[in-house]
Amino acid sequence: MYTDKSLDKYGILKRYFGHSAFRDGQTELIDAVLGGRDAIGVMPTGGGKSICYQLPALMLDGTALVISPLISLMKDQVTALQNAGVSAAFINSSLSSDELRAVYVNMRAGEYKIVYLAPERLDGEGFVSLVQGLKISLVAVDEAHCISQWGQDFRPSYLRIIDFLERLPRRPVLTAFTATATRQVRDDIELILKLRGPLRVTTGFDRPNLYFEVLRPKNKDLTLRALISQRRDKCGIVYCSTRNAVEKLSAAMCDAGVRATRYHAGLPDKERRQNQEDFLYDRAAVMVATNAFGMGIDKSNVGYVIHYNMPKSLEAYYQEAGRAGRDGENSDCILLYSAGDVQTAKYLIQSPVENEDLSENQRDAVIKRDIALLDSIVGYCKTTGCLRGYILDYFARAREDSCGNCGNCRAVFSSKDVTPEAQMILSCVKRIRDKLNYSVGVTLIVHTLCGSADRRVLELGLDSLPTHGLMRGTPKAQVRDIVEALGAQGYLSTDPVHGGVSLTPEAGNVLFRGENVEMTVREAPAPAPVPAREKRQKKKKADTVAVVTDETDGLFAALKTLRFKLSREENLPAYIIFSNAALADMAAKAPRSMAEFLDVSGVGEVKAARYGKAFLDEIAKYKS
């Protein structure tokens, strides 16, 4: 086993990772680990979490273990490390018995500096016996929010980590990393893992290169088709809440000529792996998926993430949306919202299939938590304030009043008096409650006010109420918007589990005491995001990386073509060879020698030796 003693942390950073300076928080975390101190890092997607444990692993004696929840993450990380010249391996269910045996033999011989493994492997007697005879330099828990029942991806298998550590002859340094975590989740991580006096580092949650927008389209399918058509030169992810929606949308995209593939838990393992590789290797431009896809996916050139349905929490949304723009390029995060998404989310939260690995007590606790978390994402979809600000408020981070780079900040809003409509709605809610002795949901209220002859309206006798048809000339969507506004202003309350809508004491001020009600309405749609070449948000990056301009666009395209050719020849994802950010810097600097090539951000010594000549020749050819 090698341990690189010839270089300090800056030399290691450049040689293996191709960077000349660290990002926010990395230095502190790396120094803590090298000094034998536990650490917990909360850093945004693309913020450089992996270097915080990979780099110390190269400097410390022994083997580092990285506990990771998904096979895809391990494969990507190990492939990238091997491509950079680091000896690494992974242990998970994708390995055959012969492959697993070979990894164990190499571990015993000290061949690996870093080994990724699934948490389910931690209580296997064979693995425990193996590592008890090794020197473990550190243990890194990636996606550490999975250990908390209050995190959006709770996995009971993560609770095995502390038992595993207690079986080791010597407890190694323990580190935990996640991209999104509330204070409660961070406290859970520290408590459950029994971190010892850890260094706590939380870097900025903000991703200035991401444009956020919430749309309420009349026809989601047509809107989605238009959004993807406008982004044909980019690759993206479309998230759906159900497998049926994934099947429907992916088939429709393929029929329309889009290079799309699909991913959900109902597909055979072989097909899921193939579809994922097609997306990672750029053979498919669009991945249509449930939330089963994405955690730990390292693909850096995702240009947009569209949510066809509202996810179940703001944490889940920010993590999924954050898979766009990992290379620092301007990218779009668009959520297509409809009122039916709320009921779908509640159904999925309460579905036994979603919680089949939990005990009954754990399941009840998770359902209660998820119902509460749902309010946060519903509020995001309905707010007329800054969307980025709403997210940062949720994570208790400082922010400006307006970001200027979200759909709400770019839209025009005005205030409208809706007192007459509010009185009709509140009266209808009261009369329904008086008649039935229980509350009903928004849909039945809207149908009653609009004079619907819906079967449920007739069954309950709501067509006999004097408020039936009171707003017959108003579009149902508009009535629903006013109902939601009344809820936001405290005149109506909604049962969090069953969805029944009731009057609050404040409703009496509108019904009986002449209080006026106003609501904010959007006067104009938000302008389309400005292309990256025309306007670029400021990004905090350690290296000074050039952006693509009109002058460098042609060379950038030529370098991307070369990268794609090499990726096909080596059967590697293109971004593992070089990221888009590295190619942009390469195009701007146009190096003429190997020494100049090494000055490109993202180019390390191993990659320079492997790919330098091909890229230098391409640059020389383009410049000649």
Task: Note down, in words, how this protein is organized.
- The chain folds into four domains: 9-202, Rossmann fold; 210-407, P-loop containing nucleotide triphosphate hydrolases (Rossmann fold), CATH 3.40.50; 415-524, Winged helix-like DNA-binding domain superfamily/Winged helix DNA-binding domain (Arc Repressor Mutant, subunit A), CATH 1.10.10.10; 553-623, HRDC domain (DNA polymerase, domain 1, Orthogonal Bundle).
- The longest helix has 23 residues, at 360-382.
- A hairpin with a 6-residue loop joins β15 and β16 (501-503).
- It is 43% helix and 13% strand.
- The protein is globular, with a radius of gyration of 27 Å.
- With 624 residues, it is an alpha/beta fold.
- The strands form four sheets. Strands 3-4-2-5-6-1-7 form a seven-stranded parallel beta sheet, with helices on both faces. A six-stranded parallel beta sheet has the order 8-13-12-9-11-10, sandwiched between helices.
- α1 (9-17) crosses α3 (51-59) and α2 (26-34) packs parallel to α3.
- Mean pLDDT is 87; it is low at 530-542.
- The chain has 26 helices and 17 strands.
